[in-house]
Amino acid sequence: MNKRKIIGAYVRDIRKEHNLTQEELAEMVSYQMDLKNGGNPQTISRVENATINYGIDTLIAIAEALDVSLKDLIPESL
After folding, report:
1. Residue 44: how many other CB atoms lie within 10 Å
2. Distance of CA 67 to the CA centre of its chain
3. CB atoms within 10 A of CB 65
4. Closest CA relative to residue 55, chosen from 7, 16, 23
5. Using CA atoms in the order 4, 13, 54, 60, what is the torsion angle rounded to 10 degrees?
6. One pLDDT digit (tens) per residue for the chain, 78 residues
7. Residue 67: CB partners within 8 Å, gap ≥ 6?
8. Do residues 11 and 48 make contact, with C-beta atoms less than 8 angstroms apart?
9. In what helix (H) or strand (E) does residue 8 lie, and over which residues does it extend?
10. Do 44 and 65 meet the contact criterion of CB atoms below 8 Å apart?
11. What is the pTM of this model?
């Protein structure tokens, strides 16, 4: 499996454990990244499904929004 797909699956699982929708997580991520136009749920979907090339800043913002460490989003096997 592609590494981004594995990370995306971790993001999805942790988001669901927190009972958050993609829309809610997108809003939280946009706050973490100090974006003025609000969150984009399609971005979260694309991260979870590995259909977008995202940067480390996005992954850090997702981890912060989910209140987990960055290493919680990246399995040791990677």
Report:
1. 28
2. 11
3. 23
4. 7
5. -120
6. 689 999 999 999 999 999 999 999 998 988 777 665 556 788 899 999 999 998 898 899 999 999 999 999 988 877
7. 18
8. yes
9. helix 3-17
10. no
11. 0.86
C-alpha to C-alpha distances, 7 to 3, 35, 36, nearest whole angstrom: 6, 23, 26
Report DSSP letters for 11-77, one per residue: HHHHHHHTT--HHHHHHHHHHHTT-SS---HHHHHHHHTT-S---HHHHHHHHHHHT--GGGGS-TT
Q: Alpha-carbon distance 30 to 77, whole Å? A: 29
Counting every residue, how long is the chain? 78
Find the helix packing angle between 56-66 and 3-17, rounded to 10°: 20
